[in-house]
UniProtKB/TrEMBL annotation:
<protein>
    <submittedName>
        <fullName>Uncharacterized protein</fullName>
    </submittedName>
</protein>
Amino acid sequence: MDREAILSTLSVRLLIAYIRLGKVPARLDVPIGLALVDPDHFGIEHHNSIEATRKLLEQAPMSTHLRVTLVTACTDWLTAITLAALACEEDDIEDSPEWIFASALIQAGRVSNEIDLAEGILDGKIPTEGIGE
C-alpha cells in the first residue's frame, strides 16, 4: 500500500470537504463562516475553525436533523484530520499502521455524505418535518 498516495488523496478530500463544509453553515439563518483556505497552506487554523464552527452549530437556530448532521460532519472532519496527523508522526510514513489511513479515508467519506445530507435538508429535497423531533 502506497501510504504517500493515500495521504495525498486524503489531503485533497479533506480540503474539498472543508470548502464544502464552509458553504453549508453560511446558508443558515444566522450564517457561520470558516477561515479562508489557502490550498498551499492547510494547517491548525483550519482545524480550529471547524472546531469553533462545531460549537456554534450546537447553539444556532435550525432543525435538530440539520444540527446533528452538521455537527457530525464537523466531528468526522476533525477525526479524519487528527488521524492523518497521527499517521504523519511516524519517522517514516510507511511505518504508520494501515488502519489509521483506512479510518481517515472512511471519515472523509462520511463528511462528504453528511454534507450532501445537510444540503438536501436545506434545499428542501429531504423532508424532516415530523420525523423524530
